[in-house]
Amino acid sequence: MKFLIILCGVGFGLAMGLYPGIFKPRPQWWRLLFVVCFSAVIIGALYPPAAGTFADAVAMHRLYTAPETAHLRLVPVHAKAEPTSMIETAQGYTLQMQSVDDARLVSVAFPASLRTELERIRSARSLVLVVERDGSANDMSFIAHSIAAVNPMLTYPFIPQLRERARNLYFHVPMSWVAVLAYCVAMIYGWKYLKTRNLDHDVRSSAAAGIGTMFAFLATVTGAVWARFDWGTYWNWDPRQTSIFIVFMIYGAYFALRSAIDQDDRRARLSAVYAIFAFITVPFLFFVMPRLMDGLHPGSAGSANAGPVISPQADALHPLKQIIFALSLGMFTALFYWLLGLTVRVRLLAQRVSA
Amino acid sequence: MVGNRSVATTLHHDAQSVSAMSFTTQLMRQCYAVARKDFASEWKTRFAINAMLMFVLSTVTMIAISTKEERMTNGVAAALLWVILFFSAMTGLAKSFVSEEERGTALLLRLSTYSSAVYFGKLWFNIALTTLLNAASVLIFFFLISDITIGSPMLFAVVFLCGSVGTASATTLIAAIIAKANAKGALFAVLSFPVVLPLTMSGVEALYQALIGVAFALALDNVMIMVSYCVVLITVSFLLFDAVWLD
């Protein structure tokens, strides 16, 4: 099911990217559809709050017992619960609720600061509360710290290790995918150039390589920022980080080669050969090495989980996340083809003007 | 492409009239002739081998002197050895094609034989040159830096051979490319480095395993990556060589 959704997303993006032809102007409705879908991806990725259950809050409390990790014990929970009673205390009041998820009785203490806010939004049927387990009382009593959202339509499942940073999945992974796709397209047009010796194919190949380099850069930057907050440092020489770095160097070398040859047809021929030759490293770098070597990315040799995207476990990726992830993959694919078409058209026009 | 067509017509032609010698035998002979020509011209000047040997000698000496006080671990030794092998290859391997262009003999070679014969001839020459030179590097390295022992000589030999063949097969096509570009010297290392790196990632690990003496079966993963990478590199180079060689 998960793979079907992802396949649909990529297929939709490819269909959009290839319609009405990569190098033809896109009709008005196409651009409108693209903007709508891309906005849906960004809103879907950023807007819904990430929230767990009360059981998650208990688990986090057990995981982080030291005072210096106290801030990690704060868990946003989606409180879909029926209030049963209210007890006034000196600090504020305590709400007794029955959790809808597991029918357990939960008590949440609201400090005085939250009290007025809570009275203002009395009509709320569900809340995303940031809570911490009250260690001194019984197992299911919590202290509320803040209200993150009121009546959320959608919530993301709270992933203890990733927390809010899980949203980066919708940007980082599609960017890496587009980087590989772009290099593949550069190789295909390089091969077409060698077959037909039509210089237009060379323009297409180098444009795809240029756009691919840009996406590889974006994937590296989003990955490095993500790594800083999940693994501790920006750069760890994880096999996947190494491989994107090498791919960078390949295309740096590709553009160095292009600038070192003056004749148009010779430049096109030799750079096409190098694009194809260098692309054979991609399966090794992206698919073989990261799985065989120890690393920090999910799916590495030493890692227990295959990663949410490729894990055979059906519930590894929340259905909502699957849909947005698939749509994001598709939209980044379409964006790549749109950029490619525009770049190639501009370059061909510039050639015609200068000739 | 032009080259394939000419090979195909020759094949056809051979099958009909010169049936005495099969096409494969003829190709093998021409490869051998190209390689022999390269060996002969190398032997005449000994430019590449001398330059590369001196490069290795000075690099190892520099490492030996600058790490004199340090106890060298197996990991560091494997890494340094690999660095020496790669950069010494970078000094001499481009020569086989660059000198053809510089002397103006490329045209003659292009006229007198198939491009496949040129590719495989140069590949043989480069493999032989790299293996010889790497053997010299290893000997000098272990002679000058004596606190390293090889735990598993068999594995070491296999990794050493894979590394040499891999470096040569990754760089032969690139040498042909840069022979036609400006700024040859710098460009060769720049273009070769990323293509050699996947080999390096497994190679360094396998070399380390050889130094600490891991059983052969445990290091098989890395050796297999290296071998398959070599096979892919040679196949793709062979397919692309026509496009580089025939102007």
What's the oligomerization state? heterodimer
Unreliable parts of chain B? 1-15
Per DSSP, the total helix count of chain A is: 10
Question: What form of chain A results from the Cα inertia axes?
Answer: elongated
Tag the structure with descriptive keywords:
heterodimer, A: 355 residues, alpha/beta, OB fold (Dihydrolipoamide Acetyltransferase, E2P), 2 domains, two-stranded parallel sheet, 8 strands, B: 247 residues, mainly alpha, 10 helices, disordered N terminus
Task: Provide an overview of this structure.
The complex is a heterodimer of chains A (355) and B (247). Chain A is built from ten helices and eight strands. With 355 residues, chain A is α/β, with parallel strands linked by helices. Chain A folds into two domains: 2-48 and 163-354, no CATH class; 50-152, OB fold (Dihydrolipoamide Acetyltransferase, E2P) (Beta Barrel), CATH 2.40.50. In chain A, a hairpin with a 3-residue loop joins strand 3 (81-88) and strand 4. The longest helix of chain A is centred in the C-terminal third of the chain and has 36 residues, at 319-354. The mean pLDDT of chain A is 85. Chain B has 247 residues and is mainly α. Chain B has one domain (2-11, 21-245). Chain B is built from ten helices and no strands. Chain B has helices spanning 2-16, 23-45, 47-66, 74-92, 95-103, 106-112, 115-144, 153-178, 184-212, 220-245. The termini of chain B are close together. The chains are: A alpha/beta (355), B mainly alpha (247). At the A-B interface, helix 7, helix 8 and helix 9 of A face helix 8, helix 9 and helix 10 of B.
In short:
The complex is a heterodimer of chains A (355) and B (247). Chain A is of the alpha/beta class and 355 residues long.
